[in-house]
Amino acid sequence: MANPTVKCTVDQCTHYMPGDQCMAAKISVYNNEQAGYSSEDGDTQCKSFHQRKTVGDMVGAVHNSNIGGMITGAFMDGKQLTPEVECFVNHCAYWHQNNVCQASSIEVAGYNAANPQDTDCKTFKEK
Ligand code: SF4
Ligand code: SF4
User: Fold this and answer.
1) Is the Cβ–Cβ distance between 45 and 13 less than 8 Å?
2) pLDDT tens for each residue of the chain, 127 residues long
3) Is residue 127 in some structural domain?
4) How far, in Å, from the CA of 51 to the mean position of ligand 1?
5) Which residues form the domain of 97?
6) Measured from the CB, is residue 101 less than 6 Å from ligand 2?
7) Distance (Å, rounded) from C-alpha 7 to C-alpha 11?
8) Which positions fall inside the DUF1540 domain (predicted)?
9) Does 80 map to a domain?
10) What are the b/e assignments for 14-27, b being 16+ CB within 10 Å?
């Protein structure tokens, strides 16, 4: 099953690249700890968020970077990249066994995020 394309507007994250691209090789989506389970998109979070403090932090995130996506030029062609998406929000209609997300694309957002709980999977849909 193909990974969903990921559109992300969380420009405070080390993995964020202009064009609303996520350059992480893999992202993990969780329920927010307080909520325990998600009944709305605000209860979800991208656990792979890492706050960018300096511009150099972008380079620091290279250990979890989608080098293949960069090399094949998907990024340069303006296509959305497809990091591997593992998701633990089993209350979502798109969630499938083995923590697979079956949506064809997802959108991650979180204005001025400082920690993962400030981010949401906007594509969440309650089962
Ligand atoms: S918040 Fe998540 S989806 Fe967005 S750039 Fe960071 S790791 Fe990628
Ligand atoms: S759409 Fe649903 S299953 Fe897919 S990453 Fe978001 S919360 Fe998880």
Assistant:
1) no
2) 688 999 999 999 999 999 999 999 999 999 998 777 889 999 999 999 999 886 655 554 556 777 666 656 666 566 778 899 999 999 999 999 999 999 999 999 999 999 999 999 999 999 9
3) no
4) 10
5) 5-121
6) yes
7) 11
8) 6-49, 85-124
9) yes
10) bbbbeebbbbbbeb
19 Cβ neighbours under 8 A, 6+ residues apart: 75, 78
- Structural domains counted in the chain: 1
Q: Which of 71, 91, 84 is nearest to 26 (CA)?
A: 84
Proximal ligand: closest to the CA of 103: 2
31, 89 Cβ separation under 8 angstroms:
yes
Q: What atom of ligand 2 comes closest to residue 88's alpha carbon?
A: 8
27 pocket-lining for ligand 2 (C-beta < 6 Å): no
Q: Report CA(121)–ligand 2 centroid distance (Å).
A: 6
Residue 126 contacts residue 91 (beta carbons within 8 Å):
yes
Closest CA to 31 of 42, 20, 17, 22: 42
